[in-house]
Design goal:
Elements lengths: L1 H20 L3 E8 L2 E6 L11 E4 L7 E4 L1 E8 L15 H17 L22 H5 L5
Antiparallel strand pairs: 1-2, 1-5, 3-4
C-alpha cells in the first residue's frame, strides 16, 4: 500500500512538472506614475482615467503625454520537449551507461546449485525426550 501511494504521488508530481514547464504566461502591469494600478495574467488590465499632462509653452506646440504606462512580461515555456538518443551522448557517457546496464543485468543472475554435503544425513530417531526426563527446562 505504501509503495502504491508513493508511486501515484510521484507520477502526479512529474506530470504537473511537465505541464507547468510547457506553459507560457503573459503578465500585464498597468502603472499610473510610479503606482501599480492593476496586474492581469489571463486578461487585459483595466486602464485608469486618461489623465493627460500638457507640456510646453505658448511659443512651442503643446504635446500631450500620458502619465500611464503598461508593462508586459512574457514567460515562455518549452515549445518542444526533446528526446536524446544514445548517439547524442559523449563517448564517456556511452561507456558508463553500457557498464552500468551490464552490471545491473548480471546482478540478478541465478546462483548455481551448490552441493549440499548433508543432504543424505538422517538424524537418529528419538526414543525418549531427554529434556523431560532430566527435568531440564530452558527459560
Amino acid at each position: 500500500m505504501k509503495f502504491s501511494y508513493t508511486y501515484k504521488t510521484f507520477s502526479v508530481a512529474l506530470s504537473l512538472l511537465v505541464l507547468f514547464s510547457t506553459l507560457s504566461l503573459t503578465i500585464e502591469k498597468h502603472f499610473c506614475g510610479d503606482k501599480l494600478i492593476d496586474v492581469a495574467i489571463f486578461s487585459k488590465t483595466e486602464k485608469c482615467s486618461d489623465d493627460r499632462v500638457e507640456i510646453g509653452d505658448d511659443n512651442i506646440d503643446a504635446t500631450v503625454m500620458s502619465c500611464c504606462k503598461d508593462e508586459i512580461d512574457v514567460i515562455e515555456g518549452l515549445s518542444v520537449t526533446t528526446l536524446n538518443s544514445f548517439e547524442d551522448l559523449d563517448i564517456i557517457h556511452q561507456h558508463v551507461l553500457i557498464a552500468y546496464t551490464y552490471s545491473y543485468i548480471n546482478l540478478f543472475e541465478g546462483v548455481p546449485n551448490l552441493a549440499n554435503p548433508h543432504s543424505y544425513y538422517f538424524p537418529p530417531t528419538l526414543v525418549k525426550d531427554i529434556h523431560l526426563l532430566d527435568e531440564v527446562y530452558l527459560i
